[in-house]
Amino acid sequence: MPGDLSKVFQLTSDFLKKRQDETGLWKVDEIKHNEPSLYQGSLITTSQCMLTLMYCQNKDTIVNMAKAAHYLYSRTLHDRDPIDLWAWKTHALKHVNTDLYRRTVKENQAFIAKEQTKHGYWSVFPKTFNLTNFSCMLALLDSEHSAELKRVSDWLCDNKAKDGFGWGHDDTSESSQITFTAIISMVLLGAGRDPLDPKLQEVRRYFEMTQNADGSWNSTKFTSGMPTTFATTVVLDVLMRLVDDPFDPKIKRGISFLVGSQNPDGSWPIVRGEDGRQFYPYLYIIKTLAFYKYLKDHWSNLENQVLVNSDIPKQVVVSHLAKEFEKYITNKFNYNIAKRVFESRFLGITKKAVERRKKILQILADHPALDVAEVIDELKKIKTYENLNKKTHLTQLKSDLEYLRSLNLVYLKNYKYYTTFDFNKL
């Protein structure tokens, strides 16, 4: 495997931690290329950076991810806001495991599904935009909206670019563009499309014949058609699932190109040699590298050998492992958050205070939001705290809640406290 990927993930985590705003968001200072400005705004950027940290699997980023989740949850969206914003807020928050967030995600997914046209695409003036279709599909993956996903999948497969290789900006595109083809293929596979589908295998051939000698792929017109880390990583994400061997030389060259593109400070340039102040490639790069590492680590496992050595096409095996990878990342994300908090003494100085604050976190994880008096009522149901009195212990419990709030483990909205993570998973 090229380089030490654990070091790559650590460098990225360290860089993103430094660049996060106090309010929990990440923002882009300057748009160097011609990417859609909507996708450089703080909501989508924060969603992507939060997910990047999740794929980095670094326990030390708990506060950063909690602050980001809180920022996204608190960001109110209206019907008139672009559906892309709804999609990315939903896609990030669906990885967080509290009932409060699950309910928000479910409501947002219902809104996104309602906005789908009868044809299957999502409407953007003058008709549609495949980046929007990609984002909406991401938000609906692994949800109850399988009918909507099938409708858009069928529409996309019937509306490739006129040259027949892949996809362009929209259904009117004359020629395929590498990044649009990759992101649409990515969500089609995520939605359950057969990797051996002739239309996807045509995509495989298109990618294989367009790879550059250094392992990279050229991006769309948005980045002047030059080789970019973004184009390379989204192609690799898809190609690993479409080829007969996910470790073939084309894949390895692409992985080497990505690893060799990281800047010394941990950032990722869009074009090699530039600074890394635009964050959108980070999520796809880290996710692709993490998936490649996961495949390498699990390909020869005894439990997978039956699949790998069977007559089942390798593409189907990789698709199975891709699903397992996503479950592994999300479960590890939430487990590590809870584990780090519950093994730490930073919840207080005395053992009694630490235990009481752990119980408060567990209570908040079971309820959408509670005020101080309601937290006391819930604590009193536990034998250890049955003698609590609202009159005499209100100040102490408020102090506990504010301390947890200062750690970005608890948040306050409309005079009620809630937590970002489910601390009952251990």
Task: Write up what this structure looks like.
The protein folds into 2 domains: 5-340, Glycosyltransferase (Alpha/alpha barrel), CATH 1.50.10.20; 348-419, Arc Repressor Mutant, subunit A (Orthogonal Bundle). The chain contains 17 helices and 6 strands. It has helices spanning 5-19, 42-56, 62-74, 83-93, 99-114, 130-140, 146-158, 178-190, 198-210, 229-242, 249-259, 280-298, 302-308, 314-342, 351-365, 372-379, 390-406; strands at residues 123-124, 127-128, 217-218, 227-228, 410-413, 416-419. The strands form 3 sheets. Strands 1-2 form a two-stranded antiparallel ribbon. Strands 3-4 form a two-stranded antiparallel sheet. Helix 2 (42-56) packs parallel to helix 4 and helix 4 (83-93) packs parallel to helix 6.
Cα separation of the termini: 33 Å
| Poorly predicted runs of 5 or more residues | none
Oligomeric state of the chains present here: single chain
Spatial strand arrangement across the major sheet:
1-2
At CATH level 2, the architecture of the largest domain is Alpha/alpha barrel
What sequence of helices (H) and strands (E) makes up the elements?
HHHHHEEHHHHEEHHHHHHHHEE
Total beta strand runs: 6
CATH topology of the largest domain: Glycosyltransferase
User: How much beta, percentage-wise?
Assistant: under 5%
CATH class of the largest domain: Mainly Alpha
Main beta-sheet annotation:
2 strands, antiparallel
**Number of domains as seen in the coordinates:** 2
Which of globular, elongated, flat, extended, rod-shaped describes the shape? globular
Radius of gyration: 23 Å
Chain-averaged pLDDT: 90
